Amino acid sequence: MSFIEYGDTIKDGDTAIVFLGHESMFPVKVQHGTVTQTKYGVIRHSTDLIGKKYGSKVTCSKGGWVFILHPTPELWTMNLPHRTQILYSTDISIITMMLELKPGSIVCESGTGSGSLSHALIRTVAPTGHLYTVEFHQQRAEKAREEFREHGVDHLVTVTNQDVCKNGFGVSNIADAVFLDIPSPWEAIAHAKSALKAEGGRICSFSPCIEQVQRTCLAMEEYGFTEINTLEILLRVYNVRTISLQIPDLGKAAEDNSGTGFDSSSPSTQGSPGANLQQGTVQFKSGVPLREMVGHTGYLTFATKS
Amino acid sequence: AMEGSAGARIREGDCAVLKRGEVFKAVPVLRRRKIIFEKQWFYLDNAIGHIYGTTFEVTNGGNLQPKQEVEETTTETKEAGTDNRNIVDDGKSQKLTHDDIKALKDKGIKGQEIVQQLIENSTTFRDKTEFAQDKYIKKKKKKYEAVITIVKPSTRILSTMYYAREPGKINHLRYDTLAQMLTLGNIHAGNKMIVMETCAGLMLGAVMERMGGYGSIIQMYPGGGPVRAATSCFGFPKPYFDNLHEFPLSKVHSLLSGTFSTETLPSDPEDNALVEEESNGLTEEKQTSLQETEEEPTTEAPMEINQAEEQETVDINAEDVEFKENKEKENKENVREKQMKQWERRKKLTETAALLREKNADGLIVASKFHPTPLLLSLLEFVAPSRPFVVYCQYKEPLLECYTKLRERGGVINLKLSETWLRNYQVLPDRSHPKLTMSGGGGYLLSGITVVLDKGKSDSSNLEALKMEEPSPKRCKVQDLHC
């Protein structure tokens, strides 16, 4: 396995995702002789994981079972150890498309943070592209390097430990795209411009506050960027539910018990039919929005150097 | 590298995209060919050799001239009002008449000049607030300054263009939804992907761009052949098509049941014609739009085709008839060649069938006008375990059913029904706010991950899985009561 290439079987040294159920999973580093504790009991790597097919059901010591999944940047994003606030797949998807990333693209990123976006960028630009990522926090930079090594993608990424606002990306005139997720992106626009290829490229800046966006847009304009465009993407997730609504008793039931026109014994009915007959309910499938949703992550400002 | 694109120059025969403001149009770059775009006509001849991203001005004879960066001609004294209490709409503030403006245009005066004249002849301009003046100038510039930018096609540009111009042809798949699909599907170089789409080939093109020519794609198609009108707009290099395969949906059942044979292929002449066109070169615009034309009567409401394009369609149809007549003559002379093609087609199909039979695809992308449930239940059979799949549907309800049926089938986890909202912003000093209008609908996605399906005890384990993944309704009720 690697984050950029699918493998069929689980091998020693792989990073795998243990899937326990609804939104409940965690990453595990597969190692001979190691055991992992889950609420369903112990998983023994040597016998339960190594050599098994990704996507297999693995029975734990207490009889419960889990699925072992092949890692992807999206699963990693949902499970990685947070060292900072991270970008999630919804924002990542629009960033990737609007920056026009593809195999072979050269990308600059700052800051590296917890590496959520970095993994997705590397996945997209592999096998011939490269990511130059800059992180001013030394410990975070080192941790990111370690993760990239473990995930078999270190040949596609260069982590630099410096301040992007002061020292830039450490490269010039080679990038097809630049991504900024820092508190004062306007201070890095000049560096972004010089990192981009002379012929041009795309830039994106992520900021939670509109005041940051305004200063960034002004800086982009000042440095001659065009097609400046700010947007926001929101994810709505729906739970699929079978809903029963009770038919109100308007006194008609006494006169005509069966002719209401509502089919209380439709195929989707799962409740007890007896109760339905007495009360009179209608069942239907609905996509119910979650009670709470993420209302704002950040504004994404895109622009073109041409 | 074959992926390189930035800094590329416009060449004859390229597929380019014209951009004016927020409006895009994909065109083939051909010499001495009149282009009509945003009520302007011009020739692309002069654009050849320039770098993609160059902005051109349209001159009188329909020629393109790279736009010089000029200093903004500002009104000499920066006079402005503070509010509009004294501005009255009497319809007489503009001293130039329609005829005056037309005369200016006919004289070939530059758009910039005209805008300046309009400002000078506006009696209320000086009383407008600074912001209102700004807005006025922007509006007039948009109308009178004939500039277009020629950009290189990409998923970003083509998906934005299709959503704005012809949403009906792509089942209203909004670009941010498409972006989600590429990410959720973990599309990347080296994958073996199955794509089933009726989005004019836009989804296919997006997948091809992300795979960069590495790996393979099997496109499942309904009817006589895959539609790739939008795919051809990307201008992919030839090698990208080497590992692009296609397989008819109508043969999926027989492939799964083991009765598949290329001998039973439908061999009606129309079908053959399509395949011949394809082998003649996908990148040639006329032929791909021809394929699209054949699709149109069944797929599109006529209202969605604008008049100019309808005209184009008619022209192509006339050529189409001629083209077919010529072909017929040739065919009579060359029966052997036809047989060869038939044989080649069967060979390709056998190869594709073998690829599918391995049942080890790295993902499945569905974005079609069809009901997703039967597609998913069948096509997932070809996907390896622990691989993502994403289904698009313009409507939510079919995906609710699909979700339920997938749960009954088993072999899938982490099912998620979702939708994205996209909000655009105006960002200007002291005038930042969300844009007035936003898109009302960009479709819905159902995504998930395949797992090993243990067929023996699927029923009981599915029940468990159901309990495991879905919080019970009762618990929900309790939560609701608390709030």
UniProtKB/TrEMBL annotation, chain A:
<feature type="region of interest" description="Disordered">
    <location>
        <begin position="256"/>
        <end position="278"/>
    </location>
</feature>
<dbReference type="InterPro" id="IPR049470">
    <property type="entry name" value="TRM61_C"/>
</dbReference>
<keyword id="KW-0007">Acetylation</keyword>
<dbReference type="GO" id="GO:0030488">
    <property type="term" value="P:tRNA methylation"/>
</dbReference>
<dbReference type="GO" id="GO:0160107">
    <property type="term" value="F:tRNA (adenine(58)-N1)-methyltransferase activity"/>
</dbReference>
<feature type="binding site">
    <location>
        <position position="135"/>
    </location>
    <ligand>
        <name>S-adenosyl-L-methionine</name>
    </ligand>
</feature>
<feature type="domain" description="tRNA (adenine(58)-N(1))-methyltransferase catalytic subunit TRM61 C-terminal">
    <location>
        <begin position="64"/>
        <end position="305"/>
    </location>
</feature>
<protein>
    <recommendedName>
        <fullName>tRNA (adenine(58)-N(1))-methyltransferase catalytic subunit TRMT61A</fullName>
        <ecNumber>2.1.1.220</ecNumber>
    </recommendedName>
</protein>
<dbReference type="GO" id="GO:0005634">
    <property type="term" value="C:nucleus"/>
</dbReference>
<keyword id="KW-0539">Nucleus</keyword>
<feature type="binding site">
    <location>
        <begin position="114"/>
        <end position="117"/>
    </location>
    <ligand>
        <name>S-adenosyl-L-methionine</name>
    </ligand>
</feature>
<feature type="binding site">
    <location>
        <position position="181"/>
    </location>
    <ligand>
        <name>S-adenosyl-L-methionine</name>
    </ligand>
</feature>
<dbReference type="GO" id="GO:0031515">
    <property type="term" value="C:tRNA (m1A) methyltransferase complex"/>
</dbReference>
<keyword id="KW-0808">Transferase</keyword>
<dbReference type="InterPro" id="IPR014816">
    <property type="entry name" value="tRNA_MeTrfase_Gcd14"/>
</dbReference>
<keyword id="KW-0819">tRNA processing</keyword>
<comment type="function">
    <text>Catalytic subunit of tRNA (adenine-N(1)-)-methyltransferase, which catalyzes the formation of N(1)-methyladenine at position 58 (m1A58) in initiator methionyl-tRNA. Catalytic subunit of mRNA N(1)-methyltransferase complex, which mediates methylation of adenosine residues at the N(1) position of a small subset of mRNAs: N(1) methylation takes place in tRNA T-loop-like structures of mRNAs and is only present at low stoichiometries.</text>
</comment>
<dbReference type="Pfam" id="PF08704">
    <property type="entry name" value="GCD14"/>
</dbReference>
<keyword id="KW-0949">S-adenosyl-L-methionine</keyword>
<feature type="binding site">
    <location>
        <position position="163"/>
    </location>
    <ligand>
        <name>S-adenosyl-L-methionine</name>
    </ligand>
</feature>
<keyword id="KW-0489">Methyltransferase</keyword>
<feature type="compositionally biased region" description="Polar residues">
    <location>
        <begin position="257"/>
        <end position="278"/>
    </location>
</feature>
From TrEMBL, chain B:
<keyword id="KW-0819">tRNA processing</keyword>
<dbReference type="GO" id="GO:0030488">
    <property type="term" value="P:tRNA methylation"/>
</dbReference>
<feature type="region of interest" description="Disordered">
    <location>
        <begin position="262"/>
        <end position="341"/>
    </location>
</feature>
<comment type="similarity">
    <text>Belongs to the TRM6/GCD10 family.</text>
</comment>
<dbReference type="GO" id="GO:0008168">
    <property type="term" value="F:methyltransferase activity"/>
</dbReference>
<dbReference type="GO" id="GO:0005634">
    <property type="term" value="C:nucleus"/>
</dbReference>
<dbReference type="GO" id="GO:0031515">
    <property type="term" value="C:tRNA (m1A) methyltransferase complex"/>
</dbReference>
<protein>
    <recommendedName>
        <fullName>tRNA (adenine(58)-N(1))-methyltransferase non-catalytic subunit TRM6</fullName>
    </recommendedName>
</protein>
<dbReference type="InterPro" id="IPR017423">
    <property type="entry name" value="TRM6"/>
</dbReference>
<keyword id="KW-0489">Methyltransferase</keyword>
<keyword id="KW-0539">Nucleus</keyword>
<feature type="compositionally biased region" description="Basic and acidic residues">
    <location>
        <begin position="321"/>
        <end position="341"/>
    </location>
</feature>
<dbReference type="InterPro" id="IPR029063">
    <property type="entry name" value="SAM-dependent_MTases_sf"/>
</dbReference>
<dbReference type="Pfam" id="PF04189">
    <property type="entry name" value="Gcd10p"/>
</dbReference>
<feature type="compositionally biased region" description="Acidic residues">
    <location>
        <begin position="307"/>
        <end position="320"/>
    </location>
</feature>
<feature type="region of interest" description="Disordered">
    <location>
        <begin position="71"/>
        <end position="91"/>
    </location>
</feature>
<feature type="compositionally biased region" description="Basic and acidic residues">
    <location>
        <begin position="75"/>
        <end position="91"/>
    </location>
</feature>
<feature type="compositionally biased region" description="Acidic residues">
    <location>
        <begin position="268"/>
        <end position="279"/>
    </location>
</feature>
<keyword id="KW-0808">Transferase</keyword>
